[in-house]
């Protein structure tokens, strides 16, 4: 239990500072940063102790209502670490950064994304909402600019004119989304965390993250729903492991 009560060192402080400036980091980056912080500050480095290292920081962050959380990217299943604010709901946190009508546009975009089949909303559909805002209507050009800012600030991510929630946004907003969209927000049947981009069983309606679908059906010739056993009608995503992930799973052996 000594590791749990370990004191914050300069290595921990540096790690936290860098993560704060990024907001979110991919697992491989966080592992590199962990190593670098330990080396620079001449602190003992153990490659398999990143989570303990983070726990030490989290204990110090508790009174500040902040926490470093580990989550996964819905697109490729990679681990990410994000600094999350527990004191305010993210919508109140956003309220200090954005105008009322920008927030309304974000909420409406979130509605579209969560109510969609696949976890995406098209820019056309989002921009059509801009002149229906109750707080203050927006011109299309203005709305395009606001969407760009939401992407820069890691609330949304965009691919070919389609928008979804950024990994950081999902990690930070999971509880808010599950309670706000009780009837529509889905939890992944495999990993039980919120699934925005997902495949949904046509028979019983359960959803699964794409990376979870890929892993679950990897060895099955005839994929069947884990819940109702009916045939899974979607194309199974192929999970391509990065060199970093291969190395990590090799190290974990």
How does this structure look, described?
By secondary structure, this protein is of the alpha+beta class. The chain has 3 domains: 10-64, no CATH class; 91-170, Winged helix-like DNA-binding domain superfamily/Winged helix DNA-binding domain (Arc Repressor Mutant, subunit A), CATH 1.10.10; 191-239, Herpes Virus-1, CATH 3.30.40.10. It has helices spanning 10-22, 27-40, 50-61, 90-95, 100-115, 123-129, 140-152, 167-180, 210-216, 243-252, and strands at residues 24-26, 66-72, 79-85, 121-122, 156-159, 162-165, 186-187, 194-195, 198-200, 207-209. It has a 3-stranded antiparallel beta sheet. Strands 4-6-5 form a 3-stranded antiparallel beta sheet. Strands 7-8 form a two-stranded antiparallel sheet. β5 and β6 (162-165) form a beta hairpin. α1 (10-22) packs antiparallel against α2 (27-40). The relative contact order is 0.11. The model has no long low-confidence stretch (mean pLDDT 88).
Spatial separation of the terminal alpha carbons: 24 Å
SS-derived structural category? alpha+beta
Q: Detail the poorly predicted runs.
A: none
Helix content: 40-55%
Main β-sheet, spatial strand arrangement: 1-3-2
Radius of gyration: 20 Å
CATH architecture of the largest domain: Orthogonal Bundle
Protein name: Non-structural maintenance of chromosomes element 1 homolog
Subunit structure: Component of the Smc5-Smc6 complex.
Domain RING-type: 188-229
Keywords: Chromosome, DNA damage, DNA recombination, DNA repair, Metal-binding, Nucleus, Telomere, Transferase, Ubl conjugation pathway, Zinc, Zinc-finger
């Amino acid at each position: 239990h000594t590791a749990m009560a370990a004191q914050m060192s300069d290595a921990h402080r540096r790690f936290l500072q860098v993560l704060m400036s990024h907001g979110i980091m991919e697992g491989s980056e966080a592992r590199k940063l962990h190593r670098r912080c330990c080396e620079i500050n001449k602190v003992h480095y153990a490659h398999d102790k990143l989570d303990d290292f983070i726990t030490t920081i989290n204990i110090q962050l508790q009174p500040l209502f902040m926490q470093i959380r580990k989550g996964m990217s819905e697109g490729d299943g990679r681990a990410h670490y994000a600094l999350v604010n527990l004191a305010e709901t993210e919508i109140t946190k956003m309220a200090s950064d954005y105008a009322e009508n920008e927030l309304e546009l974000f909420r409406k975009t979130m509605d579209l994304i969560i109510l969609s089949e696949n976890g995406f909303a098209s820019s056309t559909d989002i921009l059509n909402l801009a002149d229906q805002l109750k707080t203050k209507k927006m011109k299309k050009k203005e709305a395009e600019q606001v969407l760009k800012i939401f992407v820069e600030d890691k609330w949304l991510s965009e691919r070919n004119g389609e928008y979804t929630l950024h990994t950081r946004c999902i990690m930070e907003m999971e509880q808010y989304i599950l309670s706000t969209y009780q009837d529509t927000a889905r939890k992944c049947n495999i990993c039980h965390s919120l699934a925005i981009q997902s495949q949904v069983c046509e028979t019983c309606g359960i959803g699964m993250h794409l990376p979870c679908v890929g892993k679950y059906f990897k060895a099955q010739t005839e994929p069947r729903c884990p819940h109702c056993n009916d045939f899974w009608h979607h194309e199974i995503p192929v999970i391509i492991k990065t060199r970093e992930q291969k190395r990590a799973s090799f190290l974990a052996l």
